[in-house]
Amino acid sequence: MPVTLINVFTVPKGQEEAFTKWWQDVKADITSQPGFISGKFHRSLKPDSKYNFINVAIWENEDVYWKAYEKSVTPMKAKLVQLGVEMVPALYQVAFEY
């Protein structure tokens, strides 16, 4: 069953451009992983939002997501620390549609 990754980011003022440029590079690796279905990257319209960037990605199932995560988490975390970015990822399944 597909799962949805919702990954929220707190990017410090002045790091937004560097973060989005880095994410453009990261997405090439993410989208090539087995089980990746689709993704959308969001930026808050309110500059003072706590979570000013949100990544929403659909994966075929939880197992393929965790395999991709294990492969990429170490270099990603190192870059996020360098940029001063806080990341809070979580997986979800649809509870209901309306």
Q: Helix and strand layout, with pairings?
A:
Blueprint: E1 3-10, H1 16-31, E2 36-43, E3 53-59, H2 62-83, E4 86-92
Antiparallel strand pairs: 1-3, 1-4, 2-3
Structure description:
This protein has 2 helices and 4 strands; from the N terminus they run E-H-E-E-H-E. It is of the alpha+beta class. It has a single domain, classed as 2-Layer Sandwich (Alpha-Beta Plaits), CATH 3.30.70.100. The relative contact order is 0.31. The mean pLDDT is 94.
Summarize this structure as a short list of keywords or feature phrases:
Alpha-Beta Plaits, about 100 residues, 4 strands, 2 helices, alpha+beta, about 30% strand
Which class in CATH terms? Alpha Beta
What structural class do the secondary elements suggest?
alpha+beta
Low-confidence stretches: none
User: Count the helices. How many?
Assistant: 2
Q: Which series of helices and strands comes N to C? A: EHEEHE
Major sheet characteristics:
4 strands, antiparallel
Radius of gyration: 14 Å
Give the number of DSSP strands: 4
Number of domains: 1
Distance between the amino and carboxyl termini? 19 Å
CATH T-level topology: Alpha-Beta Plaits
Strand content: 25-35%
CATH architecture level-2 label:
2-Layer Sandwich
Q: Give helix % range.
A: 25-40%
Q: Give the averaged pLDDT, no decimals.
A: 94
Overall body shape: globular
